[in-house]
Write a structure and sequence with these properties.
The chain has 506 residues and is of the alpha/beta class. Strand 11 (245-248), helix 11 and strand 12 (272-275) form a beta-alpha-beta unit. The chain is globular and about 75 Å long.
Length: 506
């Protein structure tokens, strides 16, 4: 069912449900209960304090905070006051942190006590004040109601900066309607039922976590929140919290699958693992080992988080669109491609406002993304003959090598099958002759070593000659985004700091 346009926000629903069932459980943080009534009162206290500090509707507040008990009142308080949340990755430092703080032009910065020095050290030129989250905690004991009218569905809820894996981050404007639709689509992907418990490790400053903020309003489910993802504690926490659903992004499933097998691998209540980015070679092994169903989806922040979902179990497919979206695949000339052919994923909607209004202070990027009433994602997909879609990576994440376009995703998927590799990332580097050469970065599994020459021989048996990396660099670990995707723009483009397949022929 497509949500009605006049109910596509979430603040009015939250207030109504909190008044009707004040003691109903919204979430637990580290096992401590958070009721609807407590969240209503504390978020109202935050909204009042923000008003007293002079903040008005449409102002922006940058929040640099790990998941915590006070995070929910902070975000719901911002939402109720119509103030725009600017989530800041708690791992950012230096120039990356300075860029987001200066670009978003906040009226206030809220950060954890030990992060305030990082804000100062970043050198960001701020005209606003900074307060610690400990101060927010003192606000939560305040009394008195917050009675202002709620924001409209198309008011901005957040400016969410992209991970910046290939360049400077862009601030996608996310409206109240979009967050509501994100929660609605989570219901579809995860097959959420009343009484379910969603294990929530995702940082709220990423759309993967933020989209769950409204789920308890749409189903009688509980969020089981923990401070962060920890592979060694993942399944013990899932068992302790009685979780029925787990979420995956980036390399989460691979990380969990690489943990030592245990007799307790199936001693849990989880039915469904849902999310995006499950490699085909991981899909069935994960289901069989842990006894859960994988439900894959595809989407991006700019399209209310989730566009397609797979409930058929077809391995490798991201499925079909949710009811308020349709998907086309375009070639480089903007023409529709045939089934089996690859094209750029272009998203259209039947619900006005389901696609984002644009990037904050970036009209050029907005014009590139929103064309002809549709979102041009920059992602590559193909339709199978049954209508299901396959995802093939980013248009920009490819290398022109020996006259061929080489998809980084395809090379990385092949490398992932090597028994000694924990992860791999491919980039293009300058070639002595021709367009580009391929450089592959590899991270060994714990306790394993990688011989680049032996790995190269193994890859050459499994890749086309134009896909075969010339350079191989062994790294101890990758720097990652909040969703655990590799930050490729930080990988070295040098060719003298790695193994060279052609050096012996020089």
């Amino acid at each position: 069912m497509i949500p009605a346009a006049d109910t596509a926000g979430f603040v009015p629903d939250f207030i109504t449900q909190a008044e009707e069932e004040p003691q109903r459980l919204f979430a637990r943080f580290a096992g401590e209960p958070i009721s609807f009534d407590w969240l209503r009162q504390t978020s109202g206290a935050v909204a009042r304090q923000l008003r007293q500090r002079g903040l008005q509707r449409g102002d922006r507040v940058a929040v640099m905070q790990q998941n915590s008990r006070s995070a929910l009142p902070t975000l719901y308080g911002l939402a109720r006051a119509g103030i725009v949340w600017v989530p800041v990755n708690a791992q950012l430092r230096g120039d990356s942190l300075r860029y987001i703080l200066e670009h978003s032009q906040p009226s206030l910065v809220i950060a954890e006590e030990d992060m305030l020095p990082l804000v100062a050290e970043s050198g960001a030129a701020l005209s606003c004040g900074c307060i610690a989250t400990d101060d927010i905690a003192t606000w939560l004991v305040g009394t008195g109601a917050f009675e202002e009218p709620p924001p409209t569905p198309d008011d901005a809820f957040a400016i969410m900066y992209t991970s910046g894996t290939t360049g400077p981050p862009k601030g996608a404007i996310v409206t109240h309607r979009m967050l509501r639709l994100a929660g609605e689509s989570v219901r579809w992907v995860s097959a959420a039922e009343d009484g379910d418990v969603f294990y929530m490790w995702e940082p709220l400053y990423h759309i993967g976590g933020a989209q769950l903020l409204v789920l308890p309003l749409l189903r009688r489910v509980t969020l089981a929140m923990v401070p962060r993802f920890r592979a060694s504690r993942f399944w013990p926490e899932v068992r302790e919290l009685g979780a029925t659903h787990i979420h995956f992004l980036g390399g989460i499933l691979q990380i969990l699958l690489k943990q030592p097998p245990s007799a307790a691998d199936r001693t849990h209540d989880v039915r469904i693992a849902w999310g995006g980015g499950c490699p085909t070679h991981v899909w069935r092994p994960f289901e069989e080992r842990f006894g859960v169903q994988i439900r894959e989806c595809y989407g991006m922040t700019e399209a209310s988080s989730i566009t397609t979902w797979n409930d058929s179990g077809v391995v490798g497919s991201v499925g079909r669109p949710v009811p308020w979206f349709s998907v086309e695949l375009h070639d480089s000339e903007g023409r529709l491609v045939s089934p089996g052919e690859r094209g750029e994923i272009v998203v259209r909607t039947s619900v006005p406002g389901a696609l984002f209004p644009g990037y904050f202070r970036n009209p050029e990027a907005t014009a590139r993304a929103l064309r002809g009433g549709a979102l041009h994602t920059g992602d590559v997909g193909s339709f199978e003959h049954d209508g299901n879609m396959l995802f093939h990576g980013r248009l920009s994440d490819s290398v022109r090598c020996r006259g061929e376009n080489v998809s980084a995703w395809e090379v990385e998927q092949v490398a992932a099958h090597h028994p000694d590799l924990a992860d791999a990332a491919m980039i293009g580097v300058a070639a002595e002759v021709g367009e580009q050469d391929i450089k592959l970065f590899v991270q060994p599994k714990t306790g394993h070593t990688i011989d680049p020459a032996q790995l190269s021989a193994w890859l050459s048996q499994r890749l086309a000659s134009y896909q075969d990396p010339r350079y191989i660099a062994v790294v101890p670990a990758f720097e990652r985004t909040p969703s655990l995707r590799i930050m490729k723009h930080k990988l070295s483009c040098a060719t003298d700091d790695c193994w060279d397949r052609l050096a012996k022929k020089g």
